[in-house]
Amino acid sequence: MEIDNLRKLYVEELKDLHSAERQILQALPKMAKKASNPQLKAAFEQHLEVTRMQVERLDKIFERMGKKGTGKKCKAMEGLVEEGKEMMEEDMAPEVMDAALIAAAQRVEHYEMAGYGTVRTYARVLGEDQDAKLLQQTLDEEGEADKLLTKLAESSINVEAAAEV
């Protein structure tokens, strides 16, 4: 498919994010299971529910456009998830593993924030105000998740991991 205008690029970027979110839906339960810190485990479980709502929002956008959100694989997310899997297979103290899980999760959040910020802007330019509102809501949620992970890292998890030295 030739991408010769912003609307086509918008659809392709939305498909990429849809694929990314679906990959995250599979990764989050594994991350929650691997986490030893109860607050981190709860954060992953809570974000799993939020991610389900984010996929539903994307599905709404595709439905409104009369298009399917499938057919594209987000290779960037595939790489981030694979790195996370490899890291979870390492032999680490539980506190250090929690710090590593936060690092992996924040890489994912930052990728998502970049993607959602971009498509939200495309939606505004294209006059898709309903889409822009839904995408902004997801962007806000990703930012909140990132802030929570930073708070957990700085307040306890990284401190506990440092004590493992």
Number of helical segments with 4 or more residues: 5
Find the CATH topology.
Ferritin
Report the radius of gyration as a whole number of Å: 17 Å
How many DSSP-defined strands?
0
The tally of structural domains comes to 1
Spatial shape: elongated
Work out the strand percent.
under 5%
Give the N-terminus to C-terminus distance in angstroms.
53 Å
H/E topology pattern: HHHHH
What does this structure look like?
- This protein is an all-alpha fold and 165 residues long.
- It has one domain: Ferritin.
- The chain has helices at residues 6-34, 38-65, 75-88, 94-125, 129-162.
- α1 runs antiparallel to α2, α1 packs antiparallel against α4 (94-125) and α3 runs antiparallel to α4 (94-125).
- The longest helix has 34 residues, at 129-162.
- The radius of gyration is 17 Å and the shape is elongated.
- The protein starts with 5 loop residues before the first helix and ends with a helix.
